[in-house]
Design a protein that fits this description.
Blueprint (H helix, E strand, L loop, with lengths): L1 H12 L4 H12 L4 H23 L3 E5 L5 E4 L1 H7 L12 H11 L6 H13 L4 E6 L5 E8 L5 E7 L1 H21 L4 E6 L4 E4 L1 H6 L19 H17 L3 E9 L5 E12 L5 E10 L1 H21 L4 H15 L3 E8 L5 E6 L5 H7 L2 E2 L7 H7 L3 E3 L12 H7 L3 E8 L5 E9 L7 H32 L9 H18 L2 E9 L2 H8 L1 H18 L5 E6 L2 E9 L3 H15 L3 E3 L2 E3 L3 E8 L6 H17 L5 E3 L4 H18 L5 E10 L5 E12 L3 E3 L5 H7 L2 H21 L6 E5 L2 H4 L4 H12 L6 E6 H6 L1 H13 L3 E7 L6 H6 L4 E4 L1 H4 L6 H16 L3 E5 L4 H9 L4 E3 L9 H12 L1
Parallel strand pairs: 22-23, 25-27, 27-28, 28-29, 29-30, 30-31, 31-32
Antiparallel strand pairs: 1-2, 1-5, 3-4, 4-5, 6-7, 6-10, 8-9, 9-10, 11-12, 11-16, 12-13, 14-15, 15-16, 17-19, 17-22, 18-19, 20-21, 24-25, 24-32, 25-26
Helix pairs in contact: 1-2, 2-3, 5-6, 10-11, 10-15, 11-15, 17-18, 18-19, 20-21, 23-25
The structure holds ligand C2E.
């Protein structure tokens, strides 16, 4: 009975937990037998241990009886299938459990399917294991073990993560092999931008031995913070927006220090729930293409900079940067050859050390001056592969070593005309010769640098020429305004004066005309140099043109005496003797001064007033200086008016010719007349040549006026002949300006043919200075005139610089002794000496000599005594009208 009831109890115990079973046994048999009790206690302890193990095991466990009722389960089972523990009481059926699981979403199938599966497994005696994919996405590995009594025990393990990890690992291993073959960078990162996968190429360029070493790193471990931050920002955007980043160009510096351009694509990685949990990236090295692009755009930009006149420093700097961006480990430098062609000056070297740049700035070129100095000296490229060994660097080796420069390849920069402009050099920190790509870049860079430097030189020259006078190198009119305005601003601020001095060389025209243009140029240059030597660096002297200069004395005290002192220094300096060929000349100048603010406030009015003052200085006898006075402007205005009126005079037939007879001293007969022009001015009445000829010469109006005189004189002379008067010669004055006109001979031919006058009745009076201006041209013209029968005489003889040797070569018929020697010839021994010398000289050269301005009997007597041929002057007749000449000639005939 006891065993029966015990058996029953044991059977019952299958429907309760093990602990409950132990308690039941103890209460049934408690206290009856001590050994049994001990066994039971032991059993109870074992059951407790077992219960503890079962409760804490990581797998879910459940035990069912043959009626599919739960005997026991542990908390993990309840946890895995999300069935509350209070429901999993012993006795609950499998169906009921599965119903709960379906409700909790933790069943892999419907209740019936599940029961069918469980029963089919139980029907066999073999344990089975399967992975159940639960409705909630997890995978549970089930171990099902049938019991002999028809019940079963099963364990349940949640392997979701394990499977995922294994999947990743499996995939990674196979992927790794694959991606290691790819030369591009490939990687996978998690949501924190940590590398999960990286290919070999990326690992190697990141300085890591294996791809595993990359795992867990971020870009902050590999790149500079700015770059890493940029990468992280890009990736965050991909991770947060889920939008891929396609072909983004990025510049990175790898472990070797080399810069690389990458085209990167970053694509988000999503899990089954479509959540982004990382990204996959691929980066393609586009450095080569990028460099070519950069070279092309850089080249275009630099050419544009050159074309738009960017400063040379900027152009060369940009060029060096461009060149350096193309090559690794190369530092570029441009040195410019100075004006004298002897020293090299810093041009551009953005990456060379400042100490080195300063040390070589100004180095003289030579046969052994490193690579650059030698290249320019030899005018050919010099490649030094090892600075430490090459003898060309002997004197500069220590310097180069200090900065670590080991090789230097220099190429002269040459202009289109073949002039060396400077030198381009590539420095490297290693011993080597240029590679092909480098040689290509050397050629390219040298050519562009040449264009830039040449362009700059041309611009400088244009600028200089636009602002300076080529002959003297002084600033010109264009700079005057600028300098004067600055000086005025300064004077205004500091309550000072500015003196504007107009300077005109007095005897320049004469020297230029008589000694030739070269002598004139030398005089101008010397005068300019001497004036510059007398002024301070803040003052400006400008050549306006011809022999006109303007001096701007800045920052002057309000003291006329001090200004006069400075000008006196200038006068003395200008008047220093100057040897021009065979002649020693002393130049003088007339100065006109206008002071700011008294004589004008604007630059233009100051210059105009100084000019008016200079005219005054000329008027009062030259070689002096005059301070401006307001009335000077009235005169300047009058001069201006005169020019305007002179322009109209020809059209209005306001000119007429008077004729002054020339007398043969021996026969006392009129043998010629000199045609002398008069202007019947509308308001001033009759004007003598002195009142308008200088203005006509200045303005060039002398050419048409002279033409008119020539025609009129020929016409009149022919008219006298036509009325039966004894033929005489008419003498016409020719000014320098007329003589220099190329078609003078044609004009004379025209005048003769139009009037039908024979050439031998025309004489042209030239001045000494005029024919000495260009002796060659004068001889040619004179010979042509002579071949027409036209005679030539020299006016004002004795006042100029005629060379006697030259005189012999001219076809001259008459010399005219200047009036200044005749005036006092009766009393002044010097004048007598000159006059008699000219007379005997003329006779020796077979020329007739005529004295001019003869007024007195004493003068006539002297001339007769000295065998002078002819005379002209008031003694016989003043210049008279053609009608009066006609009468004089008629009386002669009678
Ligand atoms: N005190 C004084 N003067 C005397 C005496 N005898 C002649 N004269 C003046 O001396 C000048 C002589 O002419 P010139 O030396 O060729 O000097 C001329 C000549 O160089 C220039 N000239 C005159 N007509 C023309 C012309 O048609 N063309 C050019 N290019 N120049 C001219 O103007 C200058 C002055 O001419 P004019 O005033 O007509 O002055 C004339 C004449 O009137 C005298 O006994 N006493």
């Amino acid at each position: 009975m006891a065993s029966k009831s015990a058996k029953k109890a044991v059977e019952d115990s299958e429907s309760v937990g093990l602990a409950a079973l132990a308690k039941l046994v103890r209460s049934s048999y408690g206290g009856r037998q001590s050994d049994l009790e001990a066994k039971l206690q032991n059993l109870e302890a074992q059951a407790l241990r077992l219960a503890t193990v079962i409760d804490n095991i990581s797998q879910g466990i459940c035990l069912f009886d043959p009626e599919e009722r739960l005997i026991l389960s542990n908390p993990r089972y309840s946890e895995i299938y999300r069935v509350p523990p209070e429901r999993l009481v012993p006795g609950i059926t499998l169906r009921e459990i599965v119903v709960h699981r379906v409700a909790a979403g933790t069943s892999a199938m419907s209740v019936d399917e599940y029961l069918a599966l469980a029963r089919s497994v139980n029907s066999g005696a073999i344990s089975r294991t399967w992975a159940a994919d639960l409705a909630d996405g997890r995978t549970v590995q089930v171990y099902h073990h049938p019991m002999p009594d028809g019940g079963w025990v099963s364990t349940h393990e949640d392997v979701t993560e394990l499977i995922a990890t294994r999947q990743i690992v499996d995939e990674r291993i196979s992927l790794q092999t694959l991606i290691d073959w790819v030369p591009d960078y490939l990687w996978v990162k998690d949501s924190e931008s940590r590398f999960i996968v990286a290919n070999r190429s990326l690992a190697a360029d990141s300085g890591r031995e294996t791809t595993r070493d990359m795992i867990g790193l971020t870009d902050f471990d590999l790149h500079a913070p700015e770059l890493a931050s940029k990468f992280r920002a890009d990736e965050l955007s991909v991770l947060q927006t889920g939008q891929p980043m396609i072909d983004e160009e990025e510049f990175v510096v790898d472990r070797s220090g080399a810069g690389k351009w990458l085209s990167s694509t970053k694509v988000p990685l999503r899990n089954d729930r479509n959540d982004v949990f990382g990204l996959v990236g691929i980066a393609h090295d586009i450095t080569g293409r990028k460099r070519e692009d950069m070279l092309r755009t850089g080249q275009a930009q630099i050419l544009e900079m050159i074309a738009t006149g960017a400063p040379l420093d900027d152009v060369l700097d940009r060029l060096m940067h461009l060149m350096e961006s193309q090559l690794t480990g190369i530092l570029g430098s441009v040195l410019l050859l100075d004006k004298e062609g002897r020293h090299l000056r810093h041009g551009a070297a953005p990456s060379l050390a400042e100490g080195y740049i300063n040390a070589i700035d100004g180095v003289a070129i030579g046969p052994k001056v490193g690579s650059c100095g030698t290249a320019v000296f030899r005018r050919e490229p010099v490649v030094v592969a090892d600075i430490m060994r090459d003898p060309l660097w002997e004197d500069y080796r220590d310097l180069a070593e200090r900065y670590g420069y080991r090789s230097c390849w220099s190429t002269p920069i040459v202009s289109h005309q073949g002039a060396v402009l400077g030198v381009f050099a590539m420095y490297s920190m290693t011993v080597r010769e240029p590679a092909e790509a480098e040689t290509r870049l050397i050629n390219f860079t040298t050519r562009i640098a040449g264009i830039a430097i040449e362009r700059k030189k041309a611009e400088d020259q244009i600028h200089f020429m636009a602002n300076h006078d080529v002959l003297t190198g002084l600033p010109n009119r264009a700079l005057l305004q600028d300098r004067l305005s600055q000086a005025i601003l300064h004077a205004e601020r500091y309550d000072r004066w500015v003196s504007v001095v107009f300077i005109d060389l007095d005897n320049f025209k004469l020297i230029n005309d008589t000694l030739g243009h070269n002598a004139g140029d030398r005089l101008l240059k010397t005068a300019a140099e001497r004036m510059v030597g007398c002024i301070s660096s803040t003052d400006t002297i400008v050549r306006l043109g011809g022999d006109e200069f303007v001096l701007v004395l800045s920052d002057q005290p309000k003291n006329v005496d001090l200004i006069a002192e400075t000008l006196q220094k200038l006068r003395t300096a200008i008047a220093e003797p100057l040897q021009l060929g065979d002649h020693c000349v002393r130049a003088t100048a007339s100065f006109g001064i206008a002071n700011y603010p008294k004589d004008g406030k604007a630059p233009e009015s100051l210059v105009a007033n100084a000019d008016a003052a200079m005219y005054r200085a000329k008027e009062v006898g030259r070689d002096n200086f005059q301070f401006y006075a307001p009335e000077f402007n009235t005169r300047a205005h009058e001069r201006f008016l005169l020019q305007e009126e002179l322009r109209n005079a020809l059209e209005r037939s306001e000119f007429e010719l008077l004729y002054q007879p020339q007398i043969d001293l021996r026969s006392g007969q009129i043998m010629a007349v000199e045609a002398l022009i008069r202007w019947t001015h509308p308001t001033h009445g009759t004007m003598a040549p002195v009142g308008f000829i200088p203005t006509a010469e200045e303005t060039g109006l002398i050419v048409p006026i002279g033409d008119w005189v020539l025609h009129e004189a020929c016409r009149q002379n022919k008219a006298w002949q036509d009325i039966g008067l004894e033929p005489i010669t008419v003498s016409v004055n020719v000014s320098a300006r007329q003589f220099s006109e190329k078609n003078l001979v044609e004009r004379v031919v025209h005048a003769l043919s139009e009037s039908d006058l024979e050439g031998c009745y025309l004489e042209l009076e030239l001045t000494e200075s005029l024919i000495m201006q260009d002796v060659g041209l004068a001889v040619t013209t004179m010979n042509k005139l002579q071949s027409l029968g036209v005679q030539i005489s020299i006016d004002d003889f004795g006042t100029g610089y005629s060379s006697l040797t030259a005189l012999k070569t001219f076809p001259i018929a008459r010399l005219k002794i200047d009036k200044s020697f005749i005036d006092d010839v009766a009393t002044n021994e010097d004048d007598q000496a000159v006059a008699s010398a000219v007379i005997s000289l003329g006779q020796k050269l077979n020329m007739r000599v005529i004295a001019e301005g003869v007024e007195t009997d004493e003068q006539v007597a002297f001339l007769r005594k000295n065998n002078c041929d002819e005379m002209q002057g008031y003694h016989f007749s003043k210049p008279v009208s053609s009608r009066q000449i006609e009468r004089l000639l008629e009386s002669r005939s009678r």
